[in-house]
Structure formats: structure tokens, C-alpha cells
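Note to self: keep these together.
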Amino acid sequence: MKIGVLTSSRADYGIYLPLLQKIKKDTFFEMEIIAFGTHLSRLHGYTLKDIKNDKYNCVHTIASLISNDDEQSISTSYGITVLKFADFWKSNSYDLVLCLGDRFEMSAAVQAGIPYGIKFGHIHGGETTLGAIDNIYRHQITLAATLHFAATNNFKEKIVSLLGSTLNIYCVGSISLDNIASFLPIEREIFYNKFAIPNEDYVLVTFHPETMSLYDNNQYAEEMGKALKKISEDKFLVITMPNADTQGTIYRQVLEKLQKQIPNRILLIENFGKTNYFSAMYYAKMLLGNTSSGILEAASFKKYVVNVGDRQKGRAQSSNIINCRFEEEAILSSVKKADAAKAYNGDNIYYKSNAVDNIIKIIKDFYESI
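Structure:
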């Protein structure tokens, strides 16, 4: 079976990884990676190198992003991505193409495949993020897909309501958690030395713009900066940088300015890679920001998450999440609450055992039926 895998960012590649590792070893599959989006961006860490280091038989690369992140530039990048993939789909055929999540680049690649009758398998559909325009892109991908792998039963039901059918819709859990029970972090001393993290508590921070509130992002970034500066007086800050979203540069500029002001209290990371990122989560005191990783994965590491603003609003949450407004005092108060809380011992609602094996079985059964 010839299978393609669309990956447009460090985020989706990290989620895919347990699935890709098993597919690569399974002789039933002929797998080709299709890398585009921020993987080819020097500004975002040129994560194509990580894909190539994993030694797949075939890696296609498609460059389509322009450097700016204002509304017109994002729209233009979307159009260029569609044009590039119109040519790609004309020249390349697959029995199934996997796509994941809700990025605008992913939506563009999928939309270009519709006239060609490409069969897409969508992972992490049916979710809701009311504070991000990704909510629209995610549902666009769902409508174009043939196979659907939802993380929870609620998300599965959302897909059913969007499509008006139960055909080929499965609840499998989050595949990024597939190997979580056997995950071993990098040895603490090695990890801390590698990234020059002082021997003290640190907060793992990731902020992205609220792409449904474009006129508020300057204020939100300012509130973020003020809160982080105060938090740094007590906790070291390990900050992963924003992805290529509309107005992401606004947040980058605030973080870079803050790092210059207090260089000994902040570490800025463009791209951790999955093992480093999971190790960072393992050793962190808590997570802070508005990233989906806090919602999907942190509960499995028994970490509290201060989830700021509306970017993840509507997404199902485990009980480790502390939600707060995008205001300095609200952020500080919530961080204080998380710091004082007893250890989190609850479940992760996104975890289901054997997620990867179940997806592979579903794909094989699907192939036999076509």
C-alpha cells in the first residue's frame, strides 16, 4: 500500500512520530513523507533536518510560505500552497494520504487534492478551538477526508454531525501519547546542561496569537510580556517560540525583547524536537500558554497547565487545566494557583491504549475494501 504523509510543522510531525515509526517498519506500506510549511523555514528552525535524520525512504519537499505573517501574507501563502500542491497531486498518486490537525498550510494542501480524488485520512478532526481560525481549517479538512481518526468520542460525534454519516469515523485517542507509558526522559543533569537551564524550578511556556482576535494581539502580547517578566523573578522560563500563525511576529518580538532584558532568566527555543520537548515537560514545574500540547499531553506527565485566553476554547480538557484571561494579573494568579496545587493524579482524556496499532489496522482494512 502506497501511503503519503503530509507534515507542515514541528507540531504535527511530533504527534505523527509514533505512527510513522511503526509504518516505516511495516513491509505492507510504501511510505513517502511530504514536508512543507515551516519545516522549510529558517526562521522556524528548519525542521526538515529532523525529518531527514529519521531516514525515510522518500521525502518530498514543497516550499510555499512567504516570510511575513500579516493577513495578506497568510492568505497569499495559502494560495501558493494550493498551486504547488496542484502540480504535486498531478504527478504523484497514493492509496491514502495522512493529514493531521488544523494548520492553514495543511488545509491548502488538502483542498488542492479534492479535484484529483485524493483519499485523505485525517487525524485529530472534530475538535473545537474557538480562539483560532484553525477551527475553520480543521473542519475544511474533515469535509475533504475519507478516513477520520478522532481523539475522543465527543470529537467523533462532531465529525459525524459535520458529515451526516458514521462511515469510516473512528475514535483512537491521541497518537502522540502512544508510547507515553514507556517514555524515558533525557537524564536530568544531561538535559539541564544541554540547554543551560539553572538547577531550579522552571515553567515551560508556549504562546501563539489568537487568530480570531486579530485586533487584540498587541495587547495580549504586552500582557504576556509583563506577566512573564514577573514570573521570571521566581521561576526560570523555558519558552518555545510561536509557529507561523497570523501575527505570530508580535509575540516573537515581545519574547525576544524580554530575553535581552533578562537573559539569565529566559531560554528561547525555536525547535526542541519531540524527545527534548517531552523531557522539558517531564521536568517542568508547570506549563503556561495557549498551545494544544498543554491540552493534549501535559496530563500524561502529571503537570498542571495555565491555559491563557481563548485560543483553545471549546477543546475538551482534563482536570489539570487552569483557564484564565489574557491579562497580567489573571496569569500571575493562575500560575500561583498551579504552583501551590498538590500533585496532579488525574487521567488524560486523550489517552487510549494501542492508538497507533488501531490506526494501522483500520488503514489496512480500508485498503483491502477499496
